[in-house]
User: Which sequence fits this backbone?
């Protein structure tokens, strides 16, 4: 079943003197349970594409469907609500709310979704244990390493039971060991829980782990290959 | 979702103490400065009103309708027991005091001056101007200070401050310490010594004293005999007594001490029907009047009869208002009526009924003015408030209050930008946090509500701690008013006030200052809230 459908999407940045065609006519779709990487050199349009996919930015042209909803037409608070219930986010850095502990950061989205305290507690425990932070529940982000913070971010992204997880260069600020560790955890969650991951990277080691690799250049899809 | 925003906000504050402390402190200082400033201003007005109105003229007076324009003994009215009784039993009226106030020539020796006589009921008057409170106990001439300066039992640092006392009069050792700017507790021993030297005292051989001395077996007969020739004389010191009685100080020390003990007079309050007068300190100096000396008065009384009298000086009074300090003479009201011929036909006439209220707000003042006017039963009288009979003070306060308000406005302006600056800094710091929250699905309204709660909590914390921090300062400077010196001191004296700047203690102004600062906190939220509503998640995350 298709979770995401991108139809002839374009994004043109007009704000500077020169027009930038950051995404230039992309057609793509993702099935449930994919573990896909969007790769390409810096400036190729990975972030722009992912942001539109994640409902953080709107396309200049074209349509994006997530779980059958055309999110290109959603605006304001509806779009925010859509993100809350359908998309999990892992950003490059500064993902977590500094004043909240690992537990609270994970719990927070569920609280906004209106999940009961009992269910939240169970799920937080489950998720933080799954990302290997069973002993760091009460740590604030400043007490966690970069890799640990990204794992909390993954746990938080999963907490809302989204249709897919949006991760823009999640390993960009991590050393190689943490990178491998984070990827292993993501892959395991993908395999065991059938969670859909779409992440971008320009790191060859990360690309290696992906099951599908979409290569982007100048806003266009150059290659789209399935590995496993 | 049901969210406990207060809990959320509180957690945010508690978990980022640095930010919370900085923001709260900006509010705290705002409240502190606003309170302090306003307290100074209001305290000053209060001080002026206390000096001139509450403790002297009263807030309201009943007068003959022409008395204000022509304060002569022809514009008087009859004392009416029933009316006064009614006033006294009216709720909200604190004091009703009858007075005879009039100008007359006062002289002693070859000096003459127009004096203001205030005939008072010594008991009733305690509730209003209370002259007892102003009786001078110590006076410091150059000579007294020169002697003290040689007294090595007083430490040098205290002696160096003695010059502050030159030609001044004091009602207590405490106020003397204030003028010298020394700690009264630590220096109480030296204050005693200084006080002893400057003590206002005289030895007055009244008939009563002489009679007592004559019964005393420790006094030799020769001295008893010579006492007869010094009947009713007052002496400044023992040496003068010894000389006047032709006795040797060494040989008759015991007798002399006994005479001193019995004849000693210091300033004393008037009693009902008193023959003596209390005379303003500066006036006494001008007329060269000492305790026991005689003041002679001469002028016009009721229906242009001649008014005259002789009075013994019972005490000096130091009034905060220098104008009064140059001319006031307190005497018993019946003596004043007699002198001014106000009782010529057996009636008791007065010039003024001075009234004080429990609550001196302007609104209450006007309400009582009307109420009392309705109770008047003498058509020649009317009710005046202090703004009528002391328009200069009223204008002074009004014009000062105007410039005071401009000053407060300026202060608020600075305060507001102080708070706004801190809040903007805070919002800048949290841009990414808010960006992530919006990205992962938190509605802007929820962020805004949480933020407002945070601001409210910090605002309240700041306002309350600001008040709390101010209290000890306000309390201290209320009780230990800043004393002005130099030009400012002179200026205050010229305006007619004691040169002190007491702070206003707890009052409604505190509430107002707190509300104003709270409003500024609310206003400083507008910019951050706009920011939250305009914030784009991707921009915030990227930056
Ligand atoms: N907000 C923006 N305004 C203007 N140009 C932008 C903006 N964001 C990205 N771009 C441009 O769009 C192109 C694609 O950028 P981006 O999607 O960030 O690429 P990548 O994530 O692959 O590095 C780049 O040329 C970049 O400079
Ligand atoms: Mg990028």
Assistant:
């Amino acid at each position: 079943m298709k979770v995401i459908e991108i139809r002839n999407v374009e994004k043109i940045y007009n704000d500077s003197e020169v027009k930038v065609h950051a995404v230039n006519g992309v057609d793509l779709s993702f099935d449930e349970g994919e573990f896909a990487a969007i790769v390409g050199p810096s400036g190729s349009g990975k972030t722009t594409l992912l942001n539109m996919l994640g409902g953080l930015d709107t396309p200049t042209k074209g349509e994006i469907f997530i779980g059958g909803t055309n999110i290109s037409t959603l605006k304001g608070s509806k779009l925010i609500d859509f993100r809350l219930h359908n998309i999990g986010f892992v950003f490059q850095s500064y993902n977590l709310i500094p004043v909240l502990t690992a537990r609270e950061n994970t719990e927070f989205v569920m609280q906004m979704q209106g999940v009961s305290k009992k269910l939240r507690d169970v799920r937080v425990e489950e998720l933080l244990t799954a990302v290997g932070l069973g002993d760091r529940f009460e740590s604030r982000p400043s007490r966690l390493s970069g890799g640990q913070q990204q794992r909390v971010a993954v746990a938080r992204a999963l907490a809302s039971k989204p249709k897919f997880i949006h991760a823009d260069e999640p390993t960009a600020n991590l050393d190689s060991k943490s990178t491998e560790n984070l990827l292993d955890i993501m892959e395991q969650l993908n395999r065991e829980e059938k969670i859909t991951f779409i992440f971008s990277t320009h790191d060859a080691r990360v690309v290696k782990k992906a099951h599908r690799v979409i290569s982007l250049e100048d806003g266009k899809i150059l290659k789209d290959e399935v590995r496993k | 979702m049901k969210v406990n925003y207060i809990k959320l906000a509180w957690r945010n504050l508690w978990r980022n103490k640095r930010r919370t402390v900085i923001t709260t402190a900006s509010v705290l200082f705002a409240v502190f400065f606003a309170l302090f400033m306003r307290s100074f201003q209001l305290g000053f007005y209060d001080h002026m009103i206390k000096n001139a109105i509450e403790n002297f003229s009263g807030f309201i007076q009943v007068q003959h309708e022409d008395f204000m324009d022509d304060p002569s003994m022809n514009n008087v009215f009859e004392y009416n027991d029933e009316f006064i009784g009614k006033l006294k039993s009216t709720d909200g009226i604190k004091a009703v005091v009858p007075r005879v106030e009039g100008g007359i020539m006062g002289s002693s020796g070859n000096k003459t001056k127009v004096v203001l006589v205030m005939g008072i009921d010594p008991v009733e008057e305690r509730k209003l101007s209370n002259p007892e409170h102003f009786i001078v106990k110590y006076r410091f001439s150059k000579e007294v200070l020169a002697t003290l300066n040689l007294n090595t039992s007083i430490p040098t640092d205290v002696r160096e401050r003695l010059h502050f006392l030159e030609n001044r009069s004091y009602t207590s050792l405490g106020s003397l310490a204030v003028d010298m700017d020394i700690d009264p507790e630590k220096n109480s021993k030296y204050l005693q010594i200084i006080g002893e030297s400057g003590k206002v005292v005289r030895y007055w051989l009244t008939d009563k004293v002489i009679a007592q001395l004559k019964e005393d077996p420790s006094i030799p007969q020769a001295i008893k005999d010579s006492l007869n020739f010094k009947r009713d004389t007052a002496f400044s010191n023992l040496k003068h007594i010894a000389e006047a009685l032709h006795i040797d100080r060494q040989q008759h020390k015991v007798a002399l001490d006994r005479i001193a003990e019995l004849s000693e007079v210091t300033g004393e309050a008037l009693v009902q029907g008193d023959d003596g007068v209390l005379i303003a300190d500066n006036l006494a100096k001008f007329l060269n009047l000492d305790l026991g000396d005689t003041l002679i008065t001469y002028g016009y009384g009721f229906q242009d009869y001649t008014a005259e009298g002789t009075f013994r000086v019972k005490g000096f009074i130091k009034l905060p208002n220098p104008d009064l300090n140059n001319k006031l003479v307190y005497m018993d009201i019946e003596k004043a009526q007699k002198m001014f011929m106000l009782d010529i036909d057996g009636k008791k006439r007065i010039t003024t009924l001075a009234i004080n209220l429990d609550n001196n707000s302007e609104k209450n003042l006007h309400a009582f003015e009307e109420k009392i006017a309705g109770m008047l039963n003498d058509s020649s009288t009317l009710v005046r408030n202090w703004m009528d009979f002391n328009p200069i003070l009223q204008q002074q306060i009004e014009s000062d209050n105007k410039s005071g308000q401009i000053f407060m406005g300026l202060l608020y302006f600075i305060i507001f930008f102080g708070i706004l600056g801190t809040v903007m800094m805070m919002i800048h710091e949290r841009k990414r946090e808010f960006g992530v929250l919006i990205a992962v699905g938190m509605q802007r309204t929820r962020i805004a509500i949480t933020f407002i709660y945070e601001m409210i909590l910090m605002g309240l914390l700041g306002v309350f701690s600001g008040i709390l921090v101010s209290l000890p300062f306000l309390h201290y400077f209320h009780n230990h008013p800043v004393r002005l010196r130099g030009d400012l001191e002179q200026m205050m004296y010229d305006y007619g006030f004691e040169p002190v700047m007491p702070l206003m203690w707890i009052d409604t102004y505190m509430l107002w200052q707190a509300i104003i600062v709270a409003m500024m906190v609310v206003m400083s939220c507008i910019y951050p809230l706009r920011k939250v509503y305009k914030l784009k998640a991707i921009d915030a995350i990227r930056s």
